[in-house]
Design goal:
Layout (H helix, E strand, L loop, with lengths): L11 H10 L2 H13 L17 E5 L17 E5 H19 L3 H19 L18
Antiparallel strand pairs: 1-2
Amino acid sequence: MTVGERRKRLTKGQKEYMAKLRDPRWQKHKNEVLARDAYTCTWCRAGLDDGRNLQVHHGFYSRDFENPWEYPKASLYTLCERCHEQAEVVKRQVYEALGQLHPKYQHHFFNDLLGAHEELKSGGSFDELAVPWAIEAKT
């Protein structure tokens, strides 16, 4: 086995989190999110019929929630494995960009995010980021 083929060792915290993902409470919560989203990636629209591995993405993590099943369903999204990886990259980039702003300016960007969220909730839209693996929505 080459170095590239070896898996990274999980930390104690990662092992504990993986165990929580096997918990029946998470399985129930996750399945409710998948059903809500019609077992379809909410980004590229791929579904189980397309052979995609569907996962539930946490839009944020907080120390206020000790367990994954405690998160509100509104913050959980069905994504295929590829889109999930991309969403994690974007989330990390947003967090890092915000962290490079002086805290006295961060509230301006927070207010802009709240405005964008309200626009989307009221039926508005923004240009979607195309992903190369996206498929046409099934009709």
